[in-house]
Recover the amino acids of this structure.
DNA sequence: GTAAAACGAGACAAAATTGTATCGTTTTAG
DNA sequence: CTAAAACGATACAATTTTGTCTCGTTTTAC
C-alpha cells in the first residue's frame, strides 16, 4: 500500500505574487508531501502531521515550512485535486461524441485520479471553495447520466442518484485495482464500464449496443 | 443525515461476570451512545468524544462512564458489529438454496447493517479480534462469489476480488439510499442485485435466468 | 568554490483531546 | 416515598498534536 502514485503532481502553481524562486529540492519536496498526504489521508482521515512527514520522507519542520498549518495543507491538496479533476473532465467534454463514449473516456481519464477524487469525497466538507469544486464534478456526472438515459444507455427507471453513486464508487474501486496491480488502467476502465452497463453476469460478450 | 438507525442494537450483552444490574436509562444510553458513535465515526473517522456525546444526547462524563476510553468504545462497537454481521450471514447460510438466491437474501439481511459493515471496513485495523471477525465476513463473501461463478451467475473472467469489492460497496450504497429515504430495503436489495448482475443498461425486464 | 536556500533534529509553547474526580440534581425501582 | 443509580456540569490533570523557533549541516545554483 505504499501508493506509488498513478499520476504526477504539477509544479507549484506560479500564481503567487512575488514568488520567491524555489529550489529544485523544494519543489520536489512539495510534490512528495502532497502525494504522501493524499495517500495518508485516504488511508486514515485523521492522519497526523508526523505521519504525513514520515511518509513523505521529510522532517516535520520541513512539512510546516511548506504548509504552515494542517489546514493549509488540506486546502492546497483540495485545490490541486479540483484542478486536476476539472482538467480531466474538460478534456472529455472537448470531443463531441455519444454519451456512452464520453462515459468510457471519463473512466479512462478519471480512474488515474481516483485517489484525488476520493480525497475530495470526504475532505471537501470544511472548505467552501473545495466543496463547490467537488459539487461541480458531481453535477457534471449527473448531467452525463441524464444524457446516457436520453440515449437509452441507462434504464430510465433507475434513480439517477444511484447511477451517479455507482460511477463514483467504480472510479475508486478501479483506482484501487490499478494500485493493487491486478489491473491496468484500460482494463480497469473496461471492467468499470462493463460493470455499470451490463453487470457481471454475462460471460464477456461485449456490451450489447 | 441524523441517521435514524435501520436496526436496533441488542441489550447489553449479559456475558459479563458479576453484571452490576443496570438501570433502564443506563441501557438506553448505552445503545444511544453506540448508535451515535457509529453514525459519527462513519461520517468522520476522527470524531471526538465530545461530538459523539453530543450526538448521543448525553454529557461527556456519561460517555466516559459507559466506555472508559475512546478505544473501549471503538472495540465495543466493533465486537457488536461483528456479532450482528455474523448473525445475519448465518441466517442466510441456514437455508440451502442456489447461490443466486443466497445473494439476494444476503442483500436483504446485510443492507440494514450497512453502517455497521462500513464501520468495520475502516475501524477494524487496530484491534485484532475485530479485524479477524471482519476478515471472516470477507471470506464468506468470497466463498459466495465462487459459488456464483460455479453456478454460472457471475462471469468467470471477472476477478473475484472485483466482485467482492462490488458487493461490499453495493451494501453501503444501498444503506445510504435507504437512509436517505429514496428506497426501502426490498427496493434497495433489488436494485443492488440488478446492478451487480445485469448492470443498469437494460430497461427493467428482470434478470435473465 | 561559495553563498544562499533548504533541510533535519530537537527544544518549546500553545492548543486540543482525553481521561479522572467531585458534587448537586434527576430518574428509576420497588 | 425513598434509597440507590445514573446523570449533567464542571473543574482539573495527563496526553497528544500542532505550530514556532533555533542551530548546525547538506544541497543547490551559479
Amino acid at each position: 500500500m505504499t501508493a506509488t502514485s498513478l499520476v504526477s503532481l504539477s509544479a507549484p502553481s506560479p500564481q503567487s505574487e512575488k514568488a520567491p524562486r524555489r529550489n529544485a529540492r523544494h519543489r520536489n519536496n512539495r510534490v512528495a508531501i502532497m502525494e504522501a498526504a493524499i495517500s495518508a489521508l485516504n488511508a486514515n482521515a485523521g492522519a497526523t502531521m508526523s505521519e504525513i512527514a514520515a511518509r513523505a520522507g521529510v522532517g516535520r519542520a520541513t512539512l510546516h515550512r511548506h504548509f504552515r498549518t494542517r489546514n493549509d495543507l488540506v486546502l492546497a491538496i483540495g485545490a490541486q485535486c479540483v484542478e486536476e479533476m476539472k482538467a480531466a473532465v474538460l478534456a472529455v467534454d472537448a470531443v463531441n461524441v455519444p454519451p456512452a463514449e464520453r462515459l468510457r473516456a471519463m473512466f479512462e481519464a478519471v480512474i488515474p485520479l481516483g485517489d484525488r477524487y476520493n480525497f475530495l469525497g470526504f475532505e471537501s466538507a470544511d472548505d467552501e471553495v473545495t466543496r463547490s469544486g467537488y459539487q461541480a464534478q458531481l453535477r457534471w456526472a449527473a448531467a452525463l447520466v441524464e444524457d446516457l438515459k436520453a440515449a437509452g444507455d441507462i434504464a430510465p427507471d433507475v434513480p439517477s442518484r444511484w447511477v451517479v453513486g455507482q460511477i463514483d464508487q467504480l472510479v475508486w474501486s478501479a483506482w484501487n485495482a490499478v494500485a493493487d496491480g491486478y489491473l491496468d488502467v484500460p482494463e480497469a476502465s473496461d471492467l468499470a464500464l462493463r460493470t455499470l452497463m451490463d453487470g457481471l453476469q454475462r460471460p464477456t460478450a461485449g456490451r450489447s449496443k
Notes: Chain A touches chain B at residues 44-46, 153-159, 161-163, 165-166, 169, 173, 176-177, 180, 182-183, 191, 194-204, 207-208 (CB under 8 Å). Chain A has nine helices and no strands. Residues 12-17 of chain A have pLDDT under 50 and may be disordered.
